[in-house]
Amino acid sequence: MRKTGVPPVWERLLDTADLLFYAEGIRAVGIDRVIADSGVSKSTMYVHYRTKEDLVEAYLRRRTDTWRAHVEAAARSSAEDPTDRALAVFDVFHEQLSAPHYRGCPFINAAAEYPHHEGIRQTIAYHRAWLQGLFPSLLEARAEPALAAALVQLIDGAVTAAHLDHDRHAAQTAKATARLLL
């Protein structure tokens, strides 16, 4: 029986992993640290996640599911016009990319740390498939493949510039370019 207000064990593990993996890097954080910081026993952790990589996959899956819901809701509620909805995506990314705690894209970071792990690569591909389908779904009839691909590349460039160049205005620069394309 669980105490009221206390998250389930799997969620505590995932919350702890999310904080540590994003802030410090996945490989830099050992599973023993996640277990200790979450206050969960090692045997309980392995009941929920057989390996650290299973926990990494769950962390990335939750990140993408949460992010996609946030981006889509914000874009769709911002405007009725498809072009304005597509431009609103850049505003949502701006919020994230300009945050003081921004440490790069968790999916790019995971891809660099786990270039050959099939499950992690599949989770990253799941995220990328959503991003590549985002603009066509928002633009509706205006969703030419080349335009959608260019908008995704603008997002990718903004994500990279925000992290590598510490450019907190990268998403707004990308939005200005997207406006020209649209």
UniProtKB/TrEMBL annotation:
Residues 30-49 bind DNA. InterPro entries: Homeodomain-like_sf, HTH_TetR, Tet_transcr_reg_TetR-rel_C_sf, TetR_C. It holds the Pfam family TetR_N. Residues 7-67 form the HTH tetR-type domain. Keywords: DNA-binding, Transcription, Transcription regulation. One of its GO terms (molecular function) is DNA binding. The keyword Transcription regulation applies. This is TetR/AcrR family transcriptional regulator. It comes from Kribbella qitaiheensis.
